[in-house]
Design a protein that fits this description.
By secondary structure, the protein is of the alpha/beta class. The protein folds into 4 domains: 78 residues, OB fold (Dihydrolipoamide Acetyltransferase, E2P) (Beta Barrel); 136 residues, 3-Layer(aba) Sandwich (Rossmann fold), CATH 3.40.50.2300; 34 residues; 42 residues, no CATH class. It contains 10 helices and 13 strands. The strands form 3 sheets. It has a 5-stranded mixed β-barrel with strand order 1-2-3-5-4. The protein has a 5-stranded parallel sheet with strand order 7-6-8-9-10. A 3-stranded antiparallel sheet has the order 11-12-13, with no helix packed on it. Strand 8, helix 5 and strand 9 form a beta-alpha-beta unit. Helix 3 packs parallel to helix 7 and helix 4 runs parallel beside helix 5. The chain is elongated and about 185 Å long.
Length: 410
């Protein structure tokens, strides 16, 4: 075989890749018709310019040989180069891009986990080690919370359909308790252990992803190891690195809650002690202020005496002020009255003078006469006088009767 075939070049898809602590790498190369075990020693692995992982399509060059302890044919790889991503990875990224475009991965649709769930649903295989890890963690942390198990295959051709049906069954348990389903599930765990990409492929199913997106309660996906990613991880409300971590995320330890209760109890005790101290201080202050009844009566008597003295002083001060005001008014009243009378006399003299200047007799004394008709009306215009008409003229020292001879107007 060494003479006829070596060296050989093989192309295919990496599966089951692992790197030992020594630096050696072990994996298989597969295609549609078969696979072959490969080993790459540390020297050759150190020359790689990329990090191989499951699903990578590569071309390897090496020498065929037999691993004698197991009698298996293997390929000792001396060099490796990438040849494009594997078929499964291509399907994975195609579906991932499609669902991401539809919004199934949006952070806005992710829901927070309940702080104290009334029930926890678990979807996994009855024979999976993940079930034991989850049950152990829940029993240790929250033994009082009921767990509803919906068994399903987590690997194989029928796994996607069974997981989808298990989720549908748990969705009915999210409603209010009723006959036949006494437990109300508030959160769902979907878990399985690690494995190759082919082993986890059931969780990359499109129908399963859409079923997770329709969940009425938060879904935690704990599939594989921390480095494994599936479509279910992106659609779920929260991804856990391992099944045990998924159980711990939805189950706050009972010891933690007991610690919270103890802390609240201590705070209530401290608050009550402070309140009692405050009330005791108030009682002491009230006792000090009250003292003996005779002392209180004495203090009140002193207050009354002081108030009486203040009232007497205020009354005496007010009386003295009023007396001084009255004396001042007695002194100022005659003076003010005399000044007011003098002002009135001056006003009367000025009025008399102005009135005298308006006396019509003063005008008559200057040679004027006041003419009146027979009916007593004044004769103020020549048009009023007619020939033969009698007119009375009032002079400064008497009256004269006159007769109109003629009248001319200007």
């Amino acid at each position: 075989m060494d003479a006829r075939f070596n060296p050989v070049t093989v192309g295919g898809e990496i599966t089951g890749f692992s790197r030992a602590a020594s630096g050696h790498c072990y994996f298989s190369i597969k295609d549609e018709s078969g696979q072959i075990r490969c080993a790459m020693f540390r020297r050759a692995a150190g020359l790689l310019d990329f990090a191989p992982r499951d699903g990578d399509r590569v071309e390897v060059r090496g020498r065929l040989g037999v691993y004698e302890p197991r009698g298996e044919l293997q390929l000792v790889v001396e060099s490796m180069r990438t040849a494009g991503q594997g078929t499964l990875f291509e399907q994975f990224f195609k579906l991932k891009a499609k669902l991401e475009q539809e919004g199934l991965f949006d952070a806005g649709r992710k829901r927070p986990l309940p702080v104290m769930p009334r029930g926890i649903g678990v979807v996994t295989s009855l024979g999976a080690a993940a079930l034991h890890d989850v049950v152990t963690a829940l029993q240790r942390r929250v033994p009082h919370i009921p767990v509803v198990l919906a068994p399903a295959s987590v690997q194989g051709e029928n796994a996607p359909r069974e997981i989808t049906q298990a989720l549908a069954d748990l969705y009915e348990c999210t409603q209010a308790p009723a006959k036949g389903r006494p437990v109300q599930v508030d959160v769902i765990l979907m878990v399985r252990g690690g494995g190759a990409m082919e082993d986890l492929w059931a969780f990359n199913d499109e129908a399963l992803a859409r079923m997770i997106a329709r969940s009425p309660v938060p879904v935690v996906c704990g599939v594989g190891h921390e480095t494994d990613f599936t479509i279910a991880d992106f659609v779920a409300d929260l991804r856990a690195p391992t099944p045990t971590a998924a159980a711990e995320l939805v189950s706050e330890s009972m010891q933690t809650w007991l610690g919270v209760i103890a802390n609240l109890e201590q705070r209530m005790h401290d608050a009550l002690a402070r309140y009692l101290d405050q009330q005791a201080q108030r009682l002491d202050m009230a006792t000090t202020r009250l003292g003996r009844p005779s002392s209180l009566a004495g203090r009140q008597h002193l207050k009354l005496v002081s108030a009486e003295q203040q009232m007497r002083h205020a009354l005496r001060t007010a009386m003295q002020f009023r007396q001084s005001e009255t004396a001042r008014w007695q002194q100022e009243f005659p003076v003010a009255t005399g000044r007011a009378l003098q002002r009135q006399r001056d006003r009367a003299a000025r009025a008399e003078l102005r009135l005298g200047l308006l006396d019509p007799t003063l005008v008559l004394k200057r040679g004027y006469a006041w003419l009146t008709l027979e009916d007593g009306g004044p004769l103020s215009s020549a048009r009023q006088a007619q020939a033969g008409q009698r007119v009375r003229a009032t002079l400064a020292d008497g009256t004269v009767d006159l007769a109109v001879v003629s009248s001319d107007t200007i």
